[in-house]
Amino acid sequence: MAQRAFWKGYLKLSLVTCRVAMTPAVTESAKLRFHNINRETGNRVVSRYVDSETGKPVDDEDQVKGYERGEDDYVLFEDDELDDVALESTRTIDIESFVPQDSIGWMWYDSPHYLAPADKVSEEAFAVIREAMRKTKTGGIARLVLYRREHAVLLVPRDEGMVVWTLRYGDEVRDPDPFFKQSADEAPASSAKTMMKKLIEARMRDWDPKMVRDPVEERLHEIIENRTKKSKRTKPKKAAEPERKDNVIDIMEALRRSLASEKKTSSRK
Fold first, then answer.
1. Measured between alpha carbons, how far is residue 97 from residues 155, 157, 183, 187, 264 in Å?
2. Considering only CA atoms, which of 59, 37, 56, 34 is closest in space to residue 46?
3. Closest Cα to residue 166, out of 118, 108, 95, 87?
4. Whole-angstrom Cα distance, residue 54 to residue 62?
5. Element (H, E) at 155
6. CA 58 to mean position of chain CA atoms
7. Tens digits of per-residue pLDDT, 62-96?
8. Between residues 226 and 129, which one has the greater pLDDT?
9. Which of 163, 229, 248, 264 would bridge with 158, disulfide CB 3.0–4.6 Å?
10. CA 12, CA 61: separation in Å to the nearest integer?
């Protein structure tokens, strides 16, 4: 079943415009969701917004957004005021400039979305823009309102469509230098690097989505299934903590033992 688009609008590059549809590339809809339950009655516990001083509930129509500029002093914003701030980019992805795809560090990437032409008429113009970016290995920079905030976005070709990445704001990415400069300046020994390279090669695998499976989620599903069937559940054994002899690590010895272990595992296979 085709994924239903959550956003529809226009992709624009100079005088070339086409209708497009977009949907998030990732989802958490399959994740387990828990409710708070009153243990005594079995009823759900609901949360309500209350006035911090009076303790009385506040109706939805009486709630507004506020920016704190001082103690108990707020600048208030209505929802329509926030919507109007970036109204022009609400339904149009206007590509302002292009950058080499590999020039943006991965930490600037935020949330991915799939972009595709919204109808047959738009397919040709969409394909021309996509293939030109693919050939030049560039990504398009634009601005777009998503989730009630304006974002800088990066468009990159992907298969027969594009991926629209929302980019993190400049003040969200910290400068790494103050942290990385704490590392030791001493270069590792060449023999250690050689052994580490062999260890990496021994563990090299092709990418498989199962590598990032969620074992906690799987276990919770098992527990729910067992309880639904009214069967007894055995308590999972707690993994034994590895023995720690001291706080000093001999990197060469650890590498030798790791490589020996990998060779034994490979020979068994």
1. 11, 15, 37, 41, 54
2. 37
3. 108
4. 15
5. strand 149-158
6. 33
7. 988 888 888 888 888 887 776 666 555 578 999 99
8. 129
9. 163
10. 37
CATH number of the domain where residue 99 is located: 2.40.290.10
Provide the residue type at 23 as one letter: T
Query: Does residue 143 lie within any of the structural domains?
Result: yes
Please give the structure tokens belonging to residue 169. Answer: 């704001």
Q: What are phi and psi of 223, to 5 degrees?
A: -65, -45
> Residue 112 belongs to what domain range?
7-28+84-172
Q: How far apart are CA 127 and CA 9, in angstroms?
A: 16
* 36 found inside a domain: no
What does the alpha-carbon distance between residue 215 and residue 163 come to, in Å, rounded to a whole number? 29
DSSP state of 57: B
pTM over 0.70: no
Place of tokens 């050939």: 135
In a domain, 23, yes or no: yes
Lookup result for tokens 């415009």: 17
Q: CA dihedral defined by 172, 175, 179, 184, rounded to 10 degrees?
A: 150
C-beta of residue 77 within 8 angstroms of C-beta of residue 65? yes
* pLDDT per position as a tens digit, 233-260: 455 566 555 555 554 456 677 777 777 7
Instruction: Count structural domains, the chain.
Output: 1
- 255 CB neighbour count, 10 Å cutoff: 18
Helix (H, G, I), strand (E, B) or coil at 215: helix
The reply to whether 103 falls in a domain is yes
